[in-house]
Design brief:
35% helix, three-stranded parallel beta sheet, 6 helices, three-stranded antiparallel beta sheet, 8 strands, single chain, disordered N terminus, disordered C terminus, 190 residues, alpha/beta
């Protein structure tokens, strides 16, 4: 009986000391950082750009969201490099907290998404290869190939060109490259 009592008291002491130890460890464990996950398609300088050599996101939008996150109480911003046309679908799938890029405010987007106030004014331009006989007006676009960034508001503008052929590219840089090279490497993304 003494042995049984000794074993029970010993087990009780072990349980109590184990419980106290875990409370001490929990109190000493650092709190997890509060992280804001932000998706961006960083190919629109000066707003957002990814510097591959430095593994760093930079630009006006990057600085802005870092400041906003700090004021909101976040410890860290995690940037997620995402193709432009996947930003909003990824937000719908809750892959990240915010999608940030040079979005245009449209009625269609305002149905499903909340957006900040505009802080830059966008303008659309027609760009042609130097030496082209293309006139800088909408009527001269009839039957022409128009390179655009897939998913961008420029698509809406380009579709207003009568008879134009829309060719989508993943980024502005690849669309401009197609114009420079005369569309030798056409890549339809639809």
């Amino acid at each position: 009986m003494k042995n049984m009592l000794f074993i029970l008291v010993s087990m009780l002491c072990l349980l109590l000391s184990a419980g106290c130890g875990s409370d001490k460890q929990a109190a000493q464990a650092p709190a997890a950082d509060k992280v804001l996950r932000v998706a961006t398609s960083p190919a629109s300088p000066p707003f957002e750009l990814y510097l591959k050599e430095q593994n760093k996101f930079t630009g006006f939008d990057i600085d802005l969201i870092n400041d906003v996150a700090k004021k909101m109480g976040y410890d860290k911003v995690e940037f997620i490099n995402t193709p432009f046309d996947e930003l909003l679908p990824g937000l719908n799938q809750k892959k990240y907290d915010i999608a940030m890029n040079n979005f245009s405010k449209t009625k269609a987007r305002s149905i499903d998404y909340a957006a900040s106030d505009s802080y830059a004014k966008a303008a659309f331009s027609i760009v042609a290869k130097k030496g082209s006989k293309l006139k800088a007006d909408i009527d001269s676009m009839n039957g022409r190939k128009v390179a655009i960034k897939k998913g961008a508001s420029a698509e809406r503008v380009a579709k207003s060109f009568p008879g134009s052929i829309i060719v989508e590219y993943p980024e502005n840089a690849s669309a401009l490259h197609a114009v420079e090279t005369g569309y030798r490497r056409l890549r339809y993304l639809r």
